[in-house]
């Protein structure tokens, strides 16, 4: 992990606003964003396209300047520094490899611009090419490489100057599924081996969940929630986060003391819920338990069953018409023991019901 | 695609095409053919000979005019290509600004204004400057040629810049290159084929200019084309044919190189 203490804040965005355009037509790509990213962590900005995640990355890189707010690197304000004076490097979505240079020259570019002695440039370039397993390609032109190899060159080039932070802008989106899975593992390995802080932008929630130490879920120019994959999956703060990460069921009803009263008349325990007004809870499909209706729970009718191999998705309708999904682990026989049209009693696993804000 | 409209399937297409090519190339072929004529007349074949090339090569006036043409073309190419490169960078590497179209029109003005108008205008201005300064050198011709060569250099350079991936320059900046280093190490090398192509076009444009040169030149400042024009007033000689053929050869070589350079773009 180098000399820095893990857990120290490396990048800090404070009340950052980025507006494009002027006056009434201005679009706020980032709307009062504050986030602390710690030294040595794999931090992911996750959100749908247009949520501002790439804009935040470009502000950290220095390709854009914030309209308001500051960006700190190790406590120093870097908001207005040009990109060449920030110790951060970027892996571009399009890779942006220099077509007139060889693989080795691409990797050496940053070191040369920093004015490193040639012996050091040579040594580090070879070390980086070894790190991404491209020693044999050193003399090739980048156009002679496959997409996956180009991706590795882009990584090696960005890592070579040993930046304090590596920014990755949807770097895997151009790769096919199999290669993407390989590169996910590769990226994680590189991050652990170099100890460099990675800020990774993606719209792919699975990518975010499997790779990140922490995730910031973004939507409409704001950070909706920051937390580990587990925190975000198990305790989504609002409706957007709950629905963007994984599948979920929403149930809305009247708030009572410590419980939610559904339109069906059923009462769901929600610890800490204060009475008054309506409230929404979410439950992941795998946390639903189906039993016989006479054994209690919310009565629901099986609408359809979809077999997915490892599990079966059971689409249910409550008596008030609300549709929910239960994901049931497939038994060895392959039969879930349910038939369409059957009535079941739905209960939830302990602690699975989560209050969410709208 | 049998029922799709195709101009080459219209009746008479081949005949018209062949006629057009004949009209274009018969005069040139005739000129090249008679440049190898042993006889003195232009239209009577007296056997193969390279004597007119030897005569032209040995002619002091031809040598002088040819050298002057090359000197002017060299400087005009250098100046116009530099200006055109800067203009192309200025019109592609910045946010769109008010009056951009006007600037574009201004840069390409020599392509639109009749050459004779520019020639007369330059003649008047340069005559006044000559009186004021007393300077009589090649500077006027170099300046005039530089001006009308700019659009020819500008267009291929701009096309190359517009086709370039902007994220490459961003990547260079991200990798600690200063704006100047980014230009030197990334933009310029990638732009080079466009610049060379622009320079070639500017060079041949300067090399075969007659109208503006004829108006602007001082006494004793003949370029190869104006020398030939002067000779033709006394009748066509096989010597002029030989010079024309040599010029044609040079142009074909440069244009082929230009074509290869611009085609190579990915």
Outline the structure in words:
The complex is a heterodimer of chains A (358) and B (266). Chain A folds into two domains: 9-240, Rossmann fold (3-Layer(aba) Sandwich), CATH 3.40.50; 247-356, Beta Barrel (OB fold (Dihydrolipoamide Acetyltransferase, E2P)), CATH 2.40.50.140. A six-stranded mixed beta sheet of chain A has the order 6-7-8-3-9-10, sandwiched between helices. Chain A has a five-stranded antiparallel beta sheet with strand order 13-12-11-14-20. A five-stranded antiparallel beta sheet of chain A has the order 15-19-16-17-18, with no helix packed on it. Chain A is built from eight helices and 20 strands. In chain A, β17 and β18 (323-329) form a beta hairpin. Chain A has 358 residues and is of the alpha+beta class. The model of chain A is unreliable at 1-5 (pLDDT under 50). Chain B has one domain (52-263): MetI-like (MetI-like fold, Orthogonal Bundle). In chain B, α2 crosses α12 (238-263) and α8 packs antiparallel against α9. The radius of gyration of chain B is 23 Å and the shape is globular. Chain B starts with 12 loop residues before the first helix and ends with a helix. Classes of the chains: A alpha+beta (358), B mainly alpha (266).
